[in-house]
Amino acid sequence: MSNKAKKALWTVLRLLVAAALVAYVVSQARLGDAVRPAPKAEPLPVVRETADGVVVRAEDGGERLIPREAFGPEGAVRIAGIVSIGRRLAGQWWWALAALGAMMLQSPLGAVRWRMLLAVQGIHITLWESLRLTYIGWFFNNWLPGATGGDFVKAYYIAAQTHHKPEAVTVVFLDRFLGLIAVGLIGAVAVAASLNDPRVRPAQIVVGTFMAGVIVGLFVFYSRRLRNLLRVDRLIARLPLARTVAKVDRALFVYRYHKGTVAWSILLSWGTQVGSVVAMWWVATGLGSHAYWYHYFLNMPVVWIGWAAVPVPGGVGVAESLMQQLFGPSVLGPSSGLAAAEAATLALAMILAYRLVQMLVSVPGALFYLARRTGVSAAHMREELDA
After folding, report:
1. What phi, psi does 125 have (nearest 5°)?
2. Measuring CA to CA, which of 19, 125, 147, 386 is 20 to 30 A from 26?
3. How confident is the model at residue 383, as a pLDDT?
């Protein structure tokens, strides 16, 4: 099978996985409002409101009135659809505005971090150039996830400015990895604050396992004794493109001697990721969530780890399904008896609103991309990097 055919097959597989996840997510949520007439009854779609109650579409296709006095903890329950949930945020727009402000920290802090990491490799760019490329990468990640990832676009532009191309490309992905480490550390702090909450036990296990894996992996990679014992250099020499792989290995290993830079980079990543969690928290509050603060600081790292680990365009379907699993009725409405269908719909609305905030904040990246006028398509950038 040719490389072109393999790439096409891989793309189709990724899209199928994303489509399956999206189908599952949609099946758990509701577009329009519904009423559950009794505790164990199936929800019936709302047709219209009247002075006497709510008219629903019955199972036989006819209309049925649910009187207002029938609603209560042991009676009929109104289940909000995604349209009604979205209107809540429109009515409390200040939460969305605050989320936009928190998200604006992402690119400036990310640009400072990336510039620091590049300098270790002897690649020096201005802060303004770092900011422009960071915005461009973010724009591609948010607006064109199925075409070429923003990391590849950043890697293309920075590689074109230096003779240290493997090192430049490596730093782009190291920057993303340090972001994940910061996410894991945020989750670890939230674990300590939620040890007695069984509702977040799965998230605690995921974060703990992830951080344990990171610690072990970094120890093995940066230990000279273990590298000699495992004969890493000999293993690399036997790999395809051994020369390039060796350059990447050296580019990563050099950070062993720049612990201060790595520490500052992780601290800056903390700032960007905390801003992202706070943005989700505020958007969710505007949509009607009653989750505690540590639910966001623990569950969102799990969502982002899954987002990064499952190779579907833009994490579509992955993030949404994880949101529905982690933000259930007992988390979103612990004292209101929130229906499972409404919790799944609210969780979906939360991640969609969060994605919208990301898209709006990353719009300057489109302007920076157009201003460069390179005439090079994103697909061509990816092809050149693959070569």
Report:
1. -130, 160
2. 147
3. 58
State the burial class of residue 301 (Cβ atoms within 10 Å of its Cβ: 0-12, 13-18, 19+): buried
Q: What is the pLDDT of residues 372-386, one digit of tens each?
A: 766 555 555 555 555
CB distance 81 to 30 below 8 Å: yes
Cα 82 from Cα 240, distance rounded (Å)? 50
How remote is the C-alpha of 364 from its chain's centroid? 20
Task: Count CB neighbours of 28 within 10 A.
Answer: 17
Cα–Cα distance between 39 and 203 in angstroms, integer? Answer: 29
Q: Find all residues with CB under 8 Å of 101, minimum gap 6, and list them.
A: none
Report the predicted TM-score, pTM, of the whole model to 2 decimal places.
0.89
Q: What is the dihedral of CA 190, 194, 195, 201, to 10 degrees?
A: -90
Q: Which two tokens stand for residue 384?
A: 């050149």
Q: Are 329 and 339 in contact (CB under 8 A)?
A: yes
DSSP, residue by residue, 113-174? HHHHHHHHTT----HHHHHHHHHHHHHHHHH-TTT--HHHHHHHHHHTT-S-HHHHHHHHHH
- In order of 176, 189, 289, 313, 347, the CA distances from 299 in angstroms are 19, 12, 14, 21, 12
